[in-house]
Write a structure and sequence with these properties.
Layout: E1 4-8, H1 16-32, E2 35-40, H2 46-52, E3 58-59, H3 66-71, H4 76-100, E4 104-107, H5 110-123, E5 127-131, H6 138-147, E6 150-153, E7 170-172, H7 188-194, E8 202-207, H8 216-228, E9 233-238, H9 246-258, E10 264-266, H10 273-279, E11 282-285, H11 296-303, E12 307-311, E13 327-329, H12 334-346, H13 348-365, H14 368-387
Parallel strand pairs: 1-2, 1-4, 2-3, 4-5, 5-6, 6-7, 8-9, 8-11, 9-10, 11-12, 12-13
Helix pairs in contact: 1-14, 4-5, 5-6, 7-10, 8-9, 8-12, 11-13
């Protein structure tokens, strides 16, 4: 009998946790034999993401405006305002678990966990929490840990989130890369042309949603300062803007003030991020020290043969060895970021050496097959324990 894994989510947008979990769940269903059933609160942009990997989303219809409340929870006031949405999610989770009758529930975001884990406890269904966020609320996290039967950390660095608090059984399993999509281009010049870029112009870029902790203004400022130093370079940004254009407008104002509009390209949400990465000479990852858990875009860019320049954030040092397969600078040292970018612009042999080593690293450690098998092994262990 095929075992059913239920994967409920709190949102309907596209972000790193959705991409990472979707491709692994899709692989597990296609090749390992579990049925992975996705539950979303409403129809949205991530529908196509799951369908692309062979998973048909189901909807639990949380209600108009409730999803937004779940995500706007910085500070005590917004958390209090989100309480009715969490209670509604709990009620919905109880009925959805009764309807689907899963063997195991796999949670991929903190916002979903309390409601779905409480409902799972009622029905005596084991809960796996894959911890993908670098930060959490001290008190809520203790409740989450008590309601989880097993944890997957996406990096060793993210373990710091819980300090010395007792945890259920746990393991570190990194994000995966799909090499069918993310690989070096046959001709980078063609990849640039396909995006409307000048093949002869050195191109830096960022693949990230416009969020404060990703600091896209640092990436924009880096390219502006490279121009001031006499380097003709272009910049391309791929990612959604949750502020409905406000953040992007601020970045465009920076560019306009520098008189460099023709060198900057803001694409918005990109369903095929690999085409952007294949066109880049450098991927810039400029996040704050605590903002990331394990940046998936870093290993995807490495798989594409693109040199990665990153701040020291989350578990990035668990994939990148500074000076060997990428460059890492201190998260609070903008001059170091700019100097490293200039080094990569002016030293093509060194940049190529980093990129080639990066491809080898990623293929050895982060394949979709390898990571999916590790997650499936956790499923098997938890289900065996359930039957004892």
């Amino acid at each position: 009998m095929t075992r059913l894994i239920l994967l409920p989510y709190a949102g309907s947008s596209v972000g790193g946790s959705y991409v990472s979990s979707a491709q692994v769940a899709g692989y597990i269903q296609r090749h390992i034999g579990y049925e992975c059933r996705v539950l979303l609160p409403e129809q949205g942009r991530n529908d196509d993401l799951f369908r692309f990997v062979g998973l048909t989303p189901h909807y639990y219809h949380l209600g108009d405006g409730q999803t937004v409340k779940l995500y706007q929870t910085r500070g005590f006031g917004p958390k209090l305002a989100a309480l009715p949405a969490h209670l509604l999610m709990l009620k919905t989770a109880v009925s959805q678990i009764r309807y689907h009758q899963p063997d195991l529930i796999h949670i991929n975001d903190s916002r979903s966990l309390l409601a779905w884990a409480l409902a799972a406890r009622y029905w005596r269904i084991p809960v796996l929490w894959q911890v993908r966020g670098a930060e959490g609320n001290y008190y809520l996290d203790r409740m989450r840990l008590k309601l989880s039967d097993h944890l997957i950390f996406v990096s060793d660095a993210i373990r710091e989130r819980f300090g010395q608090t007792a945890r259920p059984p746990n393991v570190t399993i990194y994000n995966a890369v799909n090499f069918d999509r993310f690989h070096p281009p046959s001709e980078q010049g063609v990849a640039k042309k396909n995006l409307g870029l000048n093949p002869s112009v050195f191109t830096l870029g960022q693949v990230a949603n416009l969020l404060w902790y990703k600091r896209p203004e640092w990436a924009v400022q880096t390219v502006i300062d490279l121009h001031r130093a006499g380097h003709e370079v272009a910049f391309i940004h791929c990612g959604d803007d949750p502020t409905q254009g406000e953040y992007e407008n601020r970045l465009r104002q920076m560019v306009a003030a520098a008189g460099l509009n023709s060198y900057f390209h803001f694409l918005g949400y990109c369903a095929e991020a690999e085409k952007v990465m294949q066109a880049l000479d450098i991927l810039l990852l400029t996040s704050t020290a605590k903002g990331e858990a394990f940046p998936r875009v870093a290993i995807e860019a490495m798989a594409c043969g693109t040199a990665v320049l990153t701040t020291r954030c989350g578990g990035v040092a668990e994939a990148i060895e500074n000076g060997r397969n990428g460059i890492i600078v201190d998260a609070n040292d903008y001059p170091a970021l700019l100097n490293a970018a200039e080094q990569l612009v002016t030293q093509p042999d060194y940049r190529q050496q980093l990129a080639e080593t990066a491809v080898t690293t990623v293929r050895a450690r982060f394949s979709l097959e390898q990571i999916s098998q590790q997650v499936a092994a956790v499923y098997s262990k938890m289900l065996d324990q359930k039957e004892q």
